[in-house]
Amino acid sequence: MAAALALSGCASFQNAGTQMSTLGGLLTPHRMDIQQGNVVVREQLQALQPGMPRAQVQAILGTPLVASAFHAARWDYVFTFNRQGQEPQLRRVTVFFEGNALQRVEADELPTEQEFVAALQAERAAGRTPVLQASEEQLRAFRERHPAPAIQPAPAPVPAGPFPPLEAR
């Protein structure tokens, strides 16, 4: 019974910590966007043709995220994108070679370049942008609440002794 009470106390303490760090859920800490891997769009995939050499595939898709020495005939392109308040995005593209020539491609459903850029912009614009400039009235009220301290000029330093001339005479 005591263990059950202790464990339930831990859970409520954890929730209390979360509530305190967000001021009762009113504020949430900023989490930056995290992008990892290669962005591969539908147009890039459509540009690939069977028989292309590895160098040409790399010129179109970029450097693969995973190119294993144990699987030399396979390149993996993985893209993840995490943004606060959204489901994480995960896309995979796997390119298979036979010798130096492209054999086949396996890929998740990929957006077009326009769809990808539009999704980034639309989701960013959904948030409210804060006003970053104070009005004259706000500045005046701030100055009244926080008067600037009087600044006294510092006295000129007194030389410790004679100095040699800077220029030769």
Automatic annotation (TrEMBL):
Compositionally skewed regions (Pro residues) per UniProt: 150-169
Keyword Calcium found: no
Membership in a protein family: Belongs to the BamE family.
Gene3D superfamilies: 3.30.1450.10
Record keywords: Cell outer membrane, Membrane, Signal
Stored InterPro entries: BamE (IPR026592), BamE-like (IPR037873), BamE_dom (IPR007450)
Acyltransferase found in the keyword field: no
Pfam family, one: BamE
Origin: domain of life: Bacteria
Subcellular location: Cell outer membrane
UniProt-recorded Gene Ontology molecular function terms: protein-macromolecule adaptor activity
Quaternary organization: Part of the Bam complex.
Region (Disordered): 145-169
Location of the Outer membrane protein assembly factor BamE domain: 37-105
Cellular component terms (Gene Ontology): Bam protein complex
Coiled-coil regions, chain positions: none
Gene, per the UniProt record: bamE
GO biological process: Gram-negative-bacterium-type cell outer membrane assembly; protein insertion into membrane
Name under which the protein is recorded: Outer membrane protein assembly factor BamE
